[in-house]
Each structure stands twice: as C-alpha cells, then as structure tokens.
Amino acid sequence: MTSFTSFLRLAVLSVTLLVAMSACKDENENVKPTATDTIAANAALGRAFFEEGLNADTPAARAAGFTRVVSPDYQQYNAIAPLGRDGLIGFVEEFYKAIPNLNAVIRDVFATEDRVVVRWTITGNVTGAPFLGVPPSGQRLEFDVIDIWTIRNGQLYEHWDQFDWPRCFIQLGIQGIPAPFQEAASRPVRR
Questions:
Q1: Where are the domains of the chain?
Q2: Coil, strand, or helix at residue 177?
Q3: Nearest to residue 174, comparing CAs of 145, 132, 146?
Q4: What pLDDT score does 37 carry?
Q5: What is the per-residue pLDDT for 2?
Q6: For 7-57, what is each residue's pLDDT tens digit?
Q7: Is the separation of the CB atoms in 151 and 66 below 8 Å?
Q8: What one-character-per-residue DSSP string does 112-148 give?
Q9: Per-residue pLDDT band at 188 (split at 50, 70, 90)
C-alpha cells in the first residue's frame, strides 16, 4: 500500500505541476506592463534621447535616433527652438554647426508613468558657426540643462527645458552680465 500511496502522490504532483505550468504560460502571455515597467521604459526613453539622438556621430544618425524616440507631433515649449520634431532635429544641428565636439553627459534620469526628467551637462568648444549669435573663438562651454517630457504612445511628446544660460553667456564671453550671475557662474558646479 505504501508504494501505491507514493505512486498516487507522484501522479497528483505531476498533474498539479502540469496545470501550474499551463496556467503560468497563459498568464505570461497576457501580462500587462506594470507601473514599474512603464517607469523603466520612460527612463530608457529619456536616456535614448541623448544616447541615440543628441550624442550620435552624424546628422543622419541623430535624426534617426530622434525619429525613433520623439513623437511626430512633438510639442516644443522652448521659446528659441523651432516647433515639432523636425524643428528639434534642425535645432540640434545648429548646435553641432557651432559646437562640432558637442557632448551631452547625463547626470540624472527620473521617470514616472507619464513623464521623464533628465538633468545633463552640455560640453564642447565653439569652433564652427556662431553660437546664439556669438562668433566662435574656441570658447569652452560646460553648463547644465534640465529637460522634462511627457510620454505619449511610447515616445517623447511634450517638452520643457531649463538651461543655465547665465553660465553659458559668461563662457561665451558676453559682456554686461549682471554681477550676481557672474559671481554665481564663477563658483564650482556641484553635480
């Protein structure tokens, strides 16, 4: 009787495992992303803007990166940038014309279920075209930026940003910047 009981237990265990495996397969096929998955995807989207877009080696590669991560009906709220995704692509190329060795260094990425925020530093030398109307003379730029995007359909949709323009203007050699900004820009940056 002991061997029959053992056989019965083994049979019940086998059937239980098969049912569990079948249930797991069905559940996994119908799993919807959790908020954590969405947050991770949004953070990855924010990083991709820089890694696949801004820091790409060629204009074509940058355009392809931006086309992948930025919505076709992109809403731009930067007052000096042209509207839309094509406006963004052109705006970035104007930066590269002035700063051929432009590089974006990501400092922080924060995401929620419908937004991503990236704090980053722009570096490079103004050796090409004028930058913001200032003629090139090899000025070394290193200033911080914060970008905020909403996410729609897995792409960056609305955009706001804040540039450390006083520090940038001082590095460009622009005269007449108010003393408090000059003094603040002369202090080391804590990143």
A1: 33-164
A2: coil
A3: 132
A4: 85
A5: 56
A6: 445 444 444 433 344 444 444 455 555 776 899 999 999 999 999 999 999
A7: no
A8: -SSEEEEEEEEEEEE-SS-BTTBPPS-EEEEEEEEEE
A9: confident
E-state strands within 26-129: 70-76, 103-111, 115-126
Can you give the pTM of this predicted structure?
0.79
Tokens encoding 159 = 């955009």
Neighbours of 159 (CB within 10 A): 19
- Which residue's structure tokens are 């540039």? 163
Helix, strand or coil for residue 93? helix
Please report where in the chains the tokens 């900004």 appear, as a residue. Answer: 181
- Local structure of residue 72 (DSSP, 8 states): E
CATH of 33-164, one of 3.10.580.10, 3.10.450.50, 3.40.50.11030, 3.90.1150.10: 3.10.450.50
The residues near 63 (Cβ < 8 Å, ≥ 6 apart) are 89
